[in-house]
Specification:
By secondary structure, the chain is α+β, with helices and mostly antiparallel strands. It folds into 4 domains: 64 residues, no CATH class; 77 residues, Nucleic acid-binding proteins (OB fold (Dihydrolipoamide Acetyltransferase, E2P)), CATH 2.40.50; 80 residues, Beta Barrel (OB fold (Dihydrolipoamide Acetyltransferase, E2P)), CATH 2.40.50; 76 residues, OB fold (Dihydrolipoamide Acetyltransferase, E2P). The chain has a 6-stranded mixed beta sheet with strand order 6-10-11-9-8-7. The chain has a 5-stranded mixed beta barrel with strand order 1-2-3-5-4. A 5-stranded mixed barrel has the order 12-13-14-16-15. The chain is rod-shaped, with a radius of gyration of 36 Å.
Length: 357
């Protein structure tokens, strides 16, 4: 009989929950609310209390509570001198939020958030009261700042365009010590850019759609969430000064893969066309007098086109100064020039206004 009683007592004790310890999140109904404290039933271990600083911090939440409402709170002192179990609503909320953070990271949950601010490194946003950072490197191809040479001021200018916009992001990291989250716009369902480009090789010819036209070239979408850049120098064999005069967003184009590096694809449009320099090798030679149209001035002199895609330099040393050069040669006008250097394989040609020996 005594042995049976011992077993029953052992089973009863084993089934009893452990008493609350500091740091535990507990739950119970509200017993009463007064001007400076709220009491919570934590039977069979006693009564919990939220008062003092914790009461002031959580006063906005406490105003919404009524007797019998169930409340979750975090134990801050399980054995306080006043006989109550001291609790914190704010810390419980934070603990629950961080529990949600862990779940969101684990499940790669998509979250739609409004971008609040931008800095040179990325974007600032908030979720569940926690501040977060979205590095520029974690933006999708659609929103990644399209800036050459890593100009930080221009990157910031592009990122600021996203302030106020809604982006669908996932949490990829969190530091509970400082309460910061790290976000990514590269969603879990997408392959990484590095993995995507593995299927391509230099020399491949692809079809794509232009998604962006900027001063240094055009961006071409070659598959979902993967774009490549056609630099301005790869748009055409002829001199291109404004890509917007040749291309528009939505244009369908064929491109050639000319470089693959760090998950980025560099493309060319002109390399799918015949290089005009290969056909003029037997057509012109040093000493020939040719007709050329002045197409550009630069610090070295003037460029004149003698055929589509084939241009030569008239060096500024032929003139007293830059002003005299521009007086003698006008943009868009045709003049006779003498070829002083012609190397078709190297695509080099120099011209002179001095056509007479």
């Amino acid at each position: 009989m005594e042995e049976t009683q011992d077993k029953l007592m052992h089973g009863y004790l084993a089934d009893m929950p452990n008493p609350p310890a500091d740091g535990d999140v507990v739950e119970g109904p509200v017993l009463s609310v007064d001007k400076s404290a709220i009491y919570i039933d934590l039977s069979p271990f006693g009564t919990g209390i939220i008062y003092g600083r914790e009461f002031m911090i959580a006063r906005d939440m406490i105003r919404k509570l009524h007797v019998t409402d169930s409340v979750s709170a975090k134990v801050v002192d399980a054995k306080s001198k006043n006989g109550y179990i001291e609790l914190s609503l704010q810390e419980a909320k934070q603990a629950m939020v961080w529990g949600e953070v862990e779940e969101a990271i684990k499940d790669k949950t998509p979250i739609e958030l409004v971008i609040q601010e931008a800095n040179r490194g990325g974007l600032l946003l908030t979720w569940q009261g926690l501040q977060g950072f979205l590095p520029a490197s974690q933006l999708s191809a659609e929103h990644y700042p399209r800036v050459t040479d890593g100009d930080k001021d221009r990157i910031l200018e592009e990122l600021r365009r996203l302030v106020g916009e809604k982006l669908v992001v996932t949490i990829i990291g969190a530091t509970q010590d400082d309460g910061k989250l790290i976000f990514s716009e590269k969603h879990s369902g997408e392959e990484s850019e590095v993995k995507k480009v593995e299927k391509y090789e230099i020399g491949d010819t692809l079809s794509g759609t232009i998604t962006g036209v900027v001063e240094f070239g055009v961006f071409v979408k070659i598959e979902d969430n993967l774009e490549g850049l056609v630099h301005i120098s790869e748009l055409d064999w002829s001199l291109v000064e404004d890509p917007k005069k040749l291309f528009s967003v939505g244009d369908k184009v064929d491109v050639k893969v000319i470089d693959i590096k760090n998950g980025k694809v560099s493309l060319s449009i002109k390399q799918l066309k015949e290089n005009p320099w290969t056909t003029v090798g037997n057509k012109f030679k040093k000493g020939d007098v040719v007709k050329g149209v002045v197409i550009k001035f630069n610090k070295h002199g003037a460029l004149a086109s003698i055929e589509e895609g084939v241009a030569g330099l008239i060096h500024i040393s032929e003139f007293e100064n830059e002003e005299k050069l521009k007086e003698t040669l006008q943009l868009g006008k045709a003049y006779d020039f003498k070829i002083t250097l012609f190397e078709a394989k190297e695509q080099r040609m120099t011209l002179s206004t001095k056509t007479e020996d």
